[in-house]
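Priority: low. Protein: DUF177 domain-containing protein. Input follows.
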Amino acid sequence: MKWTIHQLYQLQNKGLTFDEVIDGKEFMNADPQIRRMSDVNVKGRADISSSKVTFHLKISGEMTLPCARTLVDVPYPFEINATETFLLNVNADYEEDAEVRIVEGETVDLQPLIQELIIVEIPLQVFSENQQAAGAAPQSGKDWEVVTEEEKQEKVDPRLAVLENFFKDKKK
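Result:
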C-alpha cells in the first residue's frame, strides 16, 4: 500500500482503486491489548490532483481483545470508513483547519495511517458474554462478588431495619 509520487501523477487521469488484504500480524505490536488480529481488508479509491491525493478507505477485520471483567478473549469486529488527504507539494494551498498529511520523501505509504486508524478504533472496554469461561478471572471471593444491576438485591442496613416496621404499624 505504497506509491511513489510519480506513480500517483501517472494515475491522475485514470484514477486509483484498490482492494487489498494485509496480514493482521503486522498490527499485533501496535497495542498490547490486541491478542490476535485477522487479516485486514482495505478497500478504497484515490482522488488525485496536481497538489494532493485524497484516499477514501474502508478498513475491516477482527481483533481479539481481553474482557475487562474476566480477561478471556473477546472477538471484536471492526469496520472503519475514513477519508485522508495527503499533500504532494509542501507549498500547496490548503485550508488552515483542514486535516491533511504532508508526504515525507517521495512515497505515500498508507500502512502507518491504517495502523493509526485501527488503534483509535480499539474500545476502552469489551465484555465477554460468557463470564464462566475456562480461564476466566474469578467472579466472587471472600466478602465480595461481581453482580449486575439486575441481580443486585436491595439490602437494608441492619441499624435501620427497625424503621421498616414503623410504617406497617401506622397503617393498622
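Strands lie at 2-4, 16-22, 36-37, 40-48, 52-66, 73-87, 100-102, 107-109, 140-141, 144-145. The chain has three helices and ten strands.
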